[in-house]
Amino acid sequence: MAVSCIFSKIIIAIKKLLRLRVSRIIYLVTAAGVSAALGGCAAGPDYVRPVAPIPVKYKETKGWKVARPDNAAIGRAWWRLFNDPLLDSLETSITISNQDIIQAEAQYRQALALVKAARAGYFPVITAGASYARSRSTASSARNTPSLLASPATVSDYSVPVDATWDLDVWGRIRRTVEASRAGAQASEADLESARLSAQTLLAQDYFQLRALDTQGRILNAAVTAYQESLRLTKNRYESGIASMADVLQAETQLKTTQAQAVDIGVQRAQLEHAIALLIGKPASDFSIPHTTLDEEHEDNLPDIPAGLPSELLERRPDIAAAERRVAEANAQIGIAEAAFYPKITLNASAGFQSSSLSKWLAWPSRFWSVGPAINETVFEGGLRRALTDEAKAAYDANVASYRQTVLSGFQEVEDNLAALRILGEESRMQDEAVKSAEKTVSVITNQYKAGIVSYLNVINAQTTALNNKRIAAQITGRRLTAAVLLIKALGGGWDASALSLNNAASQTQRRF
Fold first, then answer.
1. Domains along the sequence of the chain with CATH
2. CB neighbourhood size of 349 (10 A)
3. Which of 41, 184, 186, 177 lies closest to 122, judged by CA?
4. What's the pLDDT score for residue 65?
5. What is the phi/psi pair of residue 321, to 5°?
6. What is the band of 360 on the pLDDT scale with cuts at 50, 70, 90?
């Protein structure tokens, strides 16, 4: 018989087996319905979000410019609030090229696959195949069987079985497994958002620090130019017999020291530039940022950041959402552990064709079938199930503590950066006044030196004070921009927990099964 003909008969025979009687279909449907009804009483506690300490309002918002507590006011592309086109282009490159984000995204896809694998437990496992065996019985076994043959027999066995096994989720073990996998996938998704937000804010911090260094470099270069002029003036006065050699040496020392400081700025700038290259997934050797300073426009473009209410923080920070989802996952693991105390109920079914003759192999009289439930219960396991349940409860308690600690840390970060922005704003205004005063002092003392009223040491002290105040002012501007970035990060960067996938998966699963 041709192979193709045999396969054709096998397919036709399987199709016939699938045409079950109505009574058998009703039996299977009833069994599935009972399983679903009993599955409503899943083992383990139902999940309730843990209570976390939430303040009524932020302490540091006193005197803060009130904005509407609307998360959309920040937006997912929050860096556009700073109105810096170069920063916009760098931030856009992060999601595409940052390897940490790509890794977190792959881990999220892995978690989604685990959810699908867990949901497969709701369905029966059906296997089909074909087998052939030829065997010979012994003479003694042939005599012990009621047969007309007294000699050993050699027989063939042709079989086409279709087997089905269905674990009835009476105690909710599969349901809790799906619940745990779904919560784990949501935690992984929140981790992805945390990785993305961390990379974005770190890039913005490095960028503004680099700009602050460029500003200090500009200040130092301007000071070098001024000190070169002072040295020329001092040498002329020395040659005229008005100034001493000490004045010339002091002027040279001041110039060389400032030039060294300007060179040293380059080391820090190069490191920040390399850090930005790493964040956007580019080799440091192939990446550079042109020198651009922080000016009054950057300082004036500090965005108004709506802090909102503390209770909103629980839904706006991805790290808090991830911690909360891991609590839900640990809670479901308790149900999985407790379900092991109950017996396992399985519905088994088998059908097919079996014959000792090839010609009668797929004939209808050669069919066979069996169906029936099985129940298994572990009688003794040395306390394993109790130990696993205790371990699951301890893991739940640990995750609750981690969640509450994450919430507290979130409130701390918001308060820290609210305070930083408020205090740095006051410091910036005072420092600007100090810079203006120092510049006036330099002008007055320089004129006094030219008139021979004061020594050159007074000029050096005034110039050094003015230079330090200008550098401090540039540092404060950079710190204010960095604090604004960190506040946006502390508030969740425009993210919301409602964006998590699989939020309606539980209800859909209950309706379907």
1. 1-39+124-167+344-376 (2.20.200.10), 43-123+170-219+285-342+392-512 (1.20.1600.10)
2. 19
3. 177
4. 55
5. -60, -40
6. confident
Selection from 38, 47, 31, 36 nearest residue 342 by Cα: 38
pLDDT for 15? 47
- DSSP labels, 427-455: HHHHHHHHHHHHHHHHHHHHHHHHTTSS-
Neighbours of 185 (CB within 10 A): 27
Helix, strand or coil, per DSSP, at residue 283: coil
Strands 125-128 and 154-167: antiparallel
**H helical segments located in 292-368:** 296-300, 313-316, 318-339
Residue 412 has pLDDT above 80, yes or no: yes
Q: Which two tokens stand for residue 382?
A: 């040395």
First to last CA, the chain: 45
- 385 φ, ψ to 5°? -65, -40
Strand partners, 159: 131, 354
Spatial CB neighbours of 397, under 8 Å, sequence gap ≥ 6: none
What are 185-197's pLDDT values in tens digits? Answer: 999 999 999 999 9
Q: By the 8 A CB rule, do 87 and 207 touch?
A: yes
Per-residue pLDDT tens digits for 3-33: 444 444 444 544 444 444 434 444 444 444 4
Lowest mean pLDDT across 110-119, 171-180, 371-380, 496-505: 496-505
Which neighbouring-strand residues pair with 375?
345
Tell me the pTM. Answer: 0.81
User: Phi/psi of residue 499, each to 5°?
Assistant: -75, -10
What would you measure as the largest C-alpha separation in the chain, in angstroms?
A: 142
For 145, phi then psi, to 5°, come to -105, 140
